[in-house]
Amino acid sequence: MHLMELKTLARRLAGTVAVLTALLALPAAAEELKAGYSLPATSHYGVGVTAMAEELAKLSSGKWTVKQFPANALGGEREMVEGAQIGTVDIVATSSGPVGNFVPDTLITDIPFLFKSYEHAHAVLDGPIGQAILDQFPKHGLIALAWGENGFRNLTNAKRPVRTPADAKGLKIRTMENQVHMTAFKTLGVLPTPMAFPELFTAMQQGTVDGQENPIGVILGAKFSQVQKYLTVSQHVYSPALIILSPSVWNKLNDQEKGWFKQAALAGAKAMRKKAEDDAANGIEELKRQGMEVVTDVDVAAFQEALKPAYAEYARKFGQDKIDAIRNYRF
Ligand code: EAX
User: Fold this and answer.
1) Which segment of the chain is annotated as a signal peptide (predicted)?
2) Fewer CB near the terminus (10 Å): N or C of the chain?
């Protein structure tokens, strides 16, 4: 080999070594997590997941990034929870709606008129009762990092203004795939039609169902004013949300990293609650502008009276003591 060739070879090798050294000095590539939810990126779920991602990046010095899949891109809430179980979805921000089918202990939180206020709901869910429910998730193949919020649900329909249970009777109303909600609506004499959220807009457009019920932020985000004329501010049930993590992610974490995920999820839940509550406070005016006729003088006492047989069923199912412990929780 000529001297010139040797020199060229040496230069090339030196260059390769320099590149390799630079590569090794780079931090490990961030791991991307897939997060799914049923509403647009601008919704309370989007705001919550963004806050969680930012906190996680800060705590872990960028070890994880979060790619968001809003608006049912990964399927309905039940499908996304299944995805978390099998590891095809990493993070799910979901209403408690379908979660009772996986973790039955969550169902008690879906009882109508159980929580009197946001403060009441937060105190129960963030306290020992809520924690005991979160602790049930691992044995059902899921990790629940924090309680978030969907909000107080309100009835909408395309047929008539609803103030009383008599007005609601006979309406065909989509419910979530949740036994506690279905029992309540059946008891009220409406025709409950359980259906996954992604199918709901079309079902209302085509008249397969007359109406549905959801928090104001959801009604706005999903553009239901395009297919629903009447909004009843019934606030008939508080709808919690959950930030769920796939065990396929959780089981690889060390204790410090688990702490980061929990802390990040709590920051996400806080931001989610704030956005859901801001939407509930400001969104009704926007829905009016979009053409909805709004009933605010709802006969809540009559609805509670009409629900009595459902409450008897819940007492048999969950135990009156457990229900009272939530209803009378001091905060
Ligand atoms: O989580 O299915 C529902 O009505 C939920 O409230 C909605 O997907 C937001």
Assistant:
1) 1-30
2) N
* 54 vs 60: CA distance, rounded Å: 10
Distance 60 CA to ligand 1 centre (A): 31
- Domain residues of the chain, as ranges? 30-327
The span from the CA of 150 to the CA of 277, in Å, is: 9
Q: State pLDDT tens for residues 269-308.
A: 999 999 999 999 999 999 999 999 999 999 999 999 999 9
Residues with CB under 6 Å of ligand 1 are 38-39, 77, 95, 97, 150, 176, 197, 214, 218, 239
User: What CATH number matches the domain at 30-327, 3.40.190.170, 3.30.70.1650, 3.20.20.120, 3.30.70.20?
Assistant: 3.40.190.170
Beta strands in the chain (DSSP E): 31-36, 64-69, 91-95, 143-157, 172-175, 191-194, 211-214, 230-245, 293-295
Interior/surface letters 200-221, b for 16+ CB within 10 angstroms, e for the rest: bbebbeeeebbbbbbbbbbbbb
pLDDT in tens, 319-328: 999 999 999 9
Measured CA to CA in angstroms, residue 277 lies from 200, 269, 281, 307 at distances of 23, 12, 6, 26
Q: Taking the model in full, what pTM does it have?
A: 0.92
Backbone angles phi, psi at 154, to 5 degrees: -130, 145
Q: Is the dihedral of CA 244, 247, 249, 253 positive or negative?
A: positive
Q: Give tens-digit pLDDT for 218-233.
A: 999 999 999 999 999 9
Bridge partners of 240, per DSSP, are 149
Nearest CA to ligand 1 atom 5: 95
- What is the Cα–Cα distance from 72 to 52, expressed in whole angstroms? 19
Q: What is the mean pLDDT of residues 41-54?
A: 98
Q: Which of 264, 314, 236 is nearest to 148 (CA)?
A: 264
Virtual torsion, Cα 267, 133, 214, 87, nearest 10 deg: 70
